[in-house]
Design brief:
This protein is an alpha/beta fold. The protein has a domain of about 240 residues: Rossmann fold. Helix content is about 45%, strand content about 20%. The protein contains 14 helices and 14 strands. Strands 3-2-1-4-5-7-11 form a seven-stranded parallel beta sheet, with helices on both faces. Helix 1 packs across helix 9 and helix 4 crosses helix 6.
Length: about 350
């Protein structure tokens, strides 16, 4: 099949691109910088991809990308859109909303203008559990499933959710199917966010709210690639024009993560602080980083998540695609970290 992958030079995109090439598909890699793509892919893979260079947020680049699609791409069967992302706690709209919603809307625009939507059979959108926001139900345990009402508020949450809504409307008027995959935090050796959590636990300075213990939904990079390929390989199992699937390995309490860190490194701990102290400190951090125009490491909305047991139901995805998770945080910390 002929597959267009946006964000091929990224953390997930590079691994998915290699998987598609290993399975002998024709891959078009849409990236902002081909030099970054050359660093992300070994020569044996790089020589087999057709790069399309341009920024989906820059108007002049959109014109160039549209020309490249018309000139270099004969037909497209599948599009996998990974171009979005950004810090979950970003406080400026352009950090997360624009880099998700606008990139997707502009991608559809240039595909339509280059007449490359007509041959599509499948559009896979990399969404996030963040699209669901954080339910304001006051419960300590939160169950996420495809039936859970969404409550997005942060820029990234709104960007992901609005992109899903845009694609749902597109699917109603199109011949191809659209699948939105909502992943939790993705971890792997190149993932800075999860590695920072491990580092703080190892040093004994990871902050948690005293008297409560939340959990962190996670999925390994390899299972993300495997799940995405399962959709591509078994697209005939998708019954509706638009489907949303939650895909999560498991939720791990911070105590579980601490135990794994201690077993691996022989040391570790957490700073168990009163909620009131953490709330005031987080409010100050939010204001400082807001003035600086940078994403804060923690905000009050995410602080609450440290006190919640977040459980993700992936049964719809598992049953539809007969998928089996192959990785685990236990294996990753025990065998891959040094």
């Amino acid at each position: 099949m002929h597959v267009l992958v946006t964000g091929s030079s990224g953390f997930v995109g590079a691994e998915l691109t290699k998987k598609l090439l290993d399975e002998n598909h024709v891959v078009y890699a849409l990236v902002r910088n081909t030099r970054k793509l050359a660093k992300a892919l070994p020569p044996k893979y790089l020589n087999r991809v057709t790069p399309l260079e341009g920024d989906l947020l820059v108007e002049s680049d959109l014109e160039r990308l549209q020309h490249q699609l018309t000139k270099s791409v004969g037909r497209l069967d599948i599009v996998v859109d990974l171009a979005g992302g950004g810090p979950l706690t970003a406080n400026r709209k352009e950090y997360s909303f624009d880099t998700n919603y606008r990139t997707t809307a502009n991608l559809i625009r240039i595909l339509r203008n280059s007449q490359r939507l007509d041959s599509l059979s499948l559009f896979v959108y990399f969404s996030s559990l963040a699209a669901m926001g954080f339910p304001d139900n006051g419960e300590r345990r939160i169950l996420y499933s495809e039936r859970t009402a969404c409550n997005p508020k942060l820029p990234l949450e709104r960007g992901k959710f609005d992109s899903e809504t845009f694609l749902k409307d597109l699917a109603k008027a199109s011949k191809f199917r659209v699948v939105a995959l909502r992943f939790p935090q993705i971890y792997g050796l190149a993932d800075a966010a999860f590695m920072q959590i491990i580092s703080l636990l190892r040093k004994g300075v990871f902050p948690v709210v005293r008297g409560t213990m939340g959990s962190l939904p996670l999925i390994n990079l390899r299972d993300v690639v495997g799940a995405t390929y399962a959709v591509i390989q078994n697209a005939n199992r998708i019954t509706e024009n638009y489907e949303v699937y939650l895909v999560c390995e498991a939720s791990y309490s911070y105590d579980q993560l601490l135990d794994l860190v201690r077993k691996k490194f022989g040391q570790g701990g957490m700073l168990r602080l009163p909620y009131s102290l953490m709330y005031v400190g987080t409010s100050i951090v939010e204001r400082i980083f807001g003035v600086l125009g940078k994403p804060e490491p923690l905000n009050r909305r995410r602080l609450i998540s440290l006190t919640k047991d977040r459980v993700v139901d992936s049964s719809k995805f598992v049953s539809t695609f007969h998928f089996k998770f192959e990785e685990s945080v236990e294996h990753f910390i025990s065998n891959e970290l040094s």
